[in-house]
Write a structure and sequence with these properties.
The complex is a heterodimer of chains A (262) and B (338). Chain A is mainly α and 262 residues long. Chain A has helices spanning 25-50, 58-83, 89-93, 108-116, 118-121, 128-136, 143-148, 178-187, 190-202, 208-225, 230-233, 238-250, and strands at residues 7-11, 17-21, 96-100, 150-154. In chain A, helix 2 packs across helix 4 (108-116). Chain B has helices at residues 5-28, 36-55, 64-80, 92-106, 108-131, 135-139, 149-157, 166-186, 193-215, 219-252, 260-293, 302-322. Chain B is mostly helical and 338 residues long. Classes of the chains: A mainly alpha (262), B mainly alpha (338). Chains A and B meet through strand 2, helix 2, helix 4, helix 5 and helix 7 of A and helix 1, helix 2, helix 3, helix 8 and helix 11 of B.
């Protein structure tokens, strides 16, 4: 079985990668379940409307009914995905969207094909083949997605995070020790620095116990790399220490260079 | 690389905001062509966002700033790499009389294979009925085909068949035949085997019906009944089979080193064209079947119906074989797309 990915990773021609979080099987199933109700509602409303033709010809009214039901059940998903940028009503409510598997613009032909090939995914009933294909596929693609080169991703509207003030602007006592800070900047691995920054950005979402444990771990790690004088750390909590270290790493704070000895 | 994030955001956020606003405008009017100035601006802002994303690519994937920039770059990437010609409307007549027959001809060998499989099915259907008359109940799925052909012909010629419900019948036939065609295409996903089986099964039904009527001495009735609509309906199913076989071949990829994803990507427009053409042909077939095929002698002489069917078949052959011919375009081949 191919190992499942959580996100579609697309590499641009400029050598930069971006990721799109993949939608889960259950979310897609629920979205489609909701769409079935929408299809039923549209068909029922359309049938009632078409029924008015029976005043003139019951044959014509029945013919329209058959064509209408077929058109709605076959064309609903395609029409919605085409007009609503890769979303049906169900997909929109569940926050998922069809996109091109290579991060390109979705073509109409891709949307038509993924929806026509649904017939194979629906076999033998209730999307058993499509569901199995999604579970086995690296990118959670049903067969129609695979042939049309599409994937279904979660839609997340990320806002630009407010970084100002995140790290605080209080006096940073560690900045008084320029030599240690220089060594710190040299010794700290970028991954550890970024993890500490991530922890600070998320600290409000942590419960008190885990917050203490997490920042304790970071503090121990940074203290193992460089040794600040004891008096600089007096009364400083682990979290404050990590915050000050991250400020030194990610902000160009003015360091207090010790006066030259004469 | 560790960067001063606050300074980085302060320096670039106005460009990102501008890019987000430009993208929102483009996304609201996806078919409106870019002006040169807009295209240049989009490219410049995209490059800045890409460069920014490159600078913070060391941040963990869960980092909000990285996610924000990735989402922005993803949206801009889609718009910048739009292969379609914006502002070019779909021209149905040019597509049907040009693109569709050209696509058909380009993959003619797959059509021949679909025809051969159907013919084999028809021979099997006829043979099965010849050796075992009771096989009719098993082979023919439609109740109106199970009776004695002679009795049906007598009833039809006596005008016992209801004239009401022609429209309903036409729409039923259309949706039934289009469903069969879509299934024939879709089952090509199973390495083409699904399409081949459906084509063979259609052939079995056709062969059994033909054999049943010819054996009963009702060959003329059969030709007068089947030819007018069958001249478009049967080739339509064969074209759907052609598409299914192409899909299966692309999935198997014999003697083709192109990656599977690329093979499917380049074939997709052709599959959609073929099945779209099938849809149009099936509308014609359903109308003919409802309003012409079901009328028999003495209302409509068999000779006239057969002549109509033959003319239709020749016209369809000429359309698929010659319509939309352009000098310099590639001829028939197995390959994918373009």
């Amino acid at each position: 079985m191919a190992s499942r990915l959580d996100a579609l990773i697309v590499e641009t021609g400029d050598g930069v990668e971006f990721t799109l979080p993949l939608a889960g099987v259950m979310t897609r199933f629920l979205a489609w379940f909701l769409d079935l109700f929408v299809i039923g509602a549209i068909s029922t409303a359309g049938t009632q409307l078409v029924g008015l033709f029976s005043v003139f010809s019951s044959d014509a009214a029945q013919a329209f009914r058959i064509v209408l039901f077929f058109a709605v059940s076959t064309g609903y998903a395609f029409t919605c995905e085409w007009r609503l940028r890769g979303q049906t009503i169900g997909k929109r409510l569940f926050g998922i969207r069809v996109v091109d598997a290579e991060g390109m613009k979705l073509k109409v032909s891709q949307l038509i094909l993924r929806n026509l090939l649904r017939m194979a995914d629906m076999l033998p009933l209730a999307y058993v083949v499509g569901g199995a294909a999604m579970l086995l596929s690296k990118k959670a693609q049903r067969l129609g997605d695979f042939a049309a080169g599409t994937v279904v991703v979660r839609v997340v509207n990320w806002e630009l995070p407010a970084l100002a003030g995140l790290l605080g602007d209080e006096y940073n006592t560690l900045a008084e020790h320029a030599v240690v800070v220089a060594r710190l900047r040299r010794e700290v691995e970028p991954s550890a620095a970024q993890a500490a920054l991530g922890a600070l950005m998320r600290r409000e979402h942590l419960d008190a116990e885990h917050r203490v444990l997490l920042f304790g771990e970071f503090a121990r790690h940074f203290k193992s790399l460089v040794r600040f004088p004891e008096h600089a750390l007096t009364g400083m909590s682990d979290e404050r220490f990590v915050q000050n270290v991250v400020r030194l790493l990610f902000q160009k704070e003015k360091l207090k260079v010790p006066a030259a000895r004469t | 690389m560790i960067v001063d994030l606050e300074q980085f955001v302060a320096k670039n956020s106005s460009f990102w905001d501008e890019l987000a606003a430009l993208l929102a405008r483009i996304e609201q009017n996806p078919d409106k062509p870019f002006t040169l100035a807009e295209a240049e601006k989009l490219h410049y802002l995209y490059q800045r966002a890409v460069s920014g994303l490159g600078r913070i690519s060391g941040l963990p994937p869960s980092n909000e700033l990285r996610r924000y920039l990735e989402a922005l770059v993803a949206r801009a990437h889609v718009e910048l790499h739009d292969a379609r010609r914006r502002g070019t409307p779909f021209r149905p007549l040019a597509w049907f009389f040009g693109v569709f027959p050209r696509t058909f001809r380009r993959h003619f060998r797959a059509f021949l294979i679909a025809s051969l499989v159907t013919l084999l099915g028809a021979l099997f259907g006829g043979f099965a009925l010849a050796v075992d008359d009771t096989a009719k109940d098993t082979l023919l799925p439609f109740s109106h085909l199970l009776g004695d052909p002679k009795e049906r012909v007598l009833a039809e010629e006596a005008g016992d068949v209801q004239d009401e419900g022609r429209g309903t019948f036409a729409s039923f036939l259309f949706q039934n035949n289009l469903s069969v065609s879509i299934r024939t295409l879709a089952f090509g996903l199973f390495w083409g085997i699904g399409s081949v089986l459906l084509l063979f099964y259609n052939g079995v039904i056709l062969g059994a019906v033909c054999f049943d009527y010819v054996r009963a001495g009702e060959g003329v009735f059969l030709a007068g009944w089947l030819l007018p609509h069958g001249a478009t309906e049967i080739p339509s199913i064969l074209i759907a089979g052609q598409a299914g076989i192409l899909l299966g071949r692309a999935i198997i990829g014999w003697a083709d080193e192109t990656p599977l994803v690329e093979r499917l990507r380049s074939l997709a427009p052709d599959l959609v064209t073929l099945i779209g053409g099938v849809g149009v042909l099936l509308v014609c077939a359903a109308l003919v079947e409802s309003f012409l095929s079901q009328h028999h002698a003495p209302v409509l002489p068999y000779a006239a119906k057969i002549a109509f069917g033959v003319v239709e078949l020749i016209a369809l052959g000429a359309f698929l074989g010659m319509s939309g011919r352009q000098r310099g375009l590639p001829g028939r081949r197995w390959g994918y797309g373009k």
